[in-house]
Amino acid sequence: MTLKEELLISVEERPEMAALVNDALGALQGCGSLREIEDARVRLLGKKGTVTSVFKGLAVLPPEEKAVVGRIGNLLRQVIEEEVDALRRNIEHRETERRLAAQTLDVTLPGRRRGIGHRHLLAQVIEEATRIFVGLGYEVAEGPEVELDYYNFEALNQPPYHPARSLNDTLYVRRPDPICDDPADIMLRTHTSPVQVRVMEKRRPPLYVISPGRAYRRDEIDATHSAVFHQVEGLAVDRDITLGHLKGTLEVFAHKLFGRERDVRFRPHYFPFTEPSAEMDVSCFKCLGAGCSLCKGAGWLEILGCGMVDPNVFGYVGYDPEEFTGFAFGMGVERIAMLKYGIDDMRVFYEDDARFLRQF
Ligand code: PHE
Description:
This protein is of the alpha+beta class. It is about 40% helix and about 20% strand. About 30% of the residues are buried.
């Protein structure tokens, strides 16, 4: 039996106390806050409380009534204390619930989206060029960016007095030491062409290779120059390779990269490691050949350097120029990206401004 049940049974022995019990329990029922509970408790059990006065009145009662009234009073006090405790716990529990509810994560809310990055425009252009040549049966080869004079210049038919070797163009890592036994220069490669020599040195034709990568030159940085830039190099060596193969291959490449509507043309040029040499132009992206500010009225944009591999280069790698012929080409990735996407300042490629990068 609970104390409350005991109280309700006991009170039947003193019906005149029923109103007091009912009022007391009723007063607690209506309490909605800790404050109200405390007020009700004081009104009932405090020094001047209604239940307290029951005990004060005991003195004037005859002994047999004293016992009954005292027992009912005690029961009532205990029940009130129990009720007060229960009500307090209840309210505290509800408050905790409410606080937790306010803190709870709403997992149904849409999350904050984090921007997903993507390939840098230069990486995309390299990838695209690579994909085109791989589709034509080429394989990809890479070489070191810190390169020996032999691969960067000498074996590419650039004798020691060649102007491209001058300090103005080349970033040297080590210059020849007159006392040292091994006086070879070490430099940051000024183009990706040394990879041609490295590949030919290791293998025999047929060879169809492209090598994308970084190159370095001692240039002032401005809208069209950067000390670090990217090239895609190509090399094909086989029996009976002709200038026709070179032109056909690069024309297909240009059409795939820039679109079928573009024309290409080859202009004679000079490179130490190719003979004959040429530069390839594509019809201007902006005016399609009519002449505009982008092509400076020419209608054409220079896109790459190329030529038939010079027999002297074959000499360095032990190929018989009577048996094999080949062509090579090299293009600047930044320049191609700038022309293709109408970018007028090379520096944006390296500044990592998300507003620029996310456009591509
Ligand atoms: N290496 C040359 C350059 O950097 C480009 C080139 C590569 C030209 C292969 C001809 C053949 O300008």
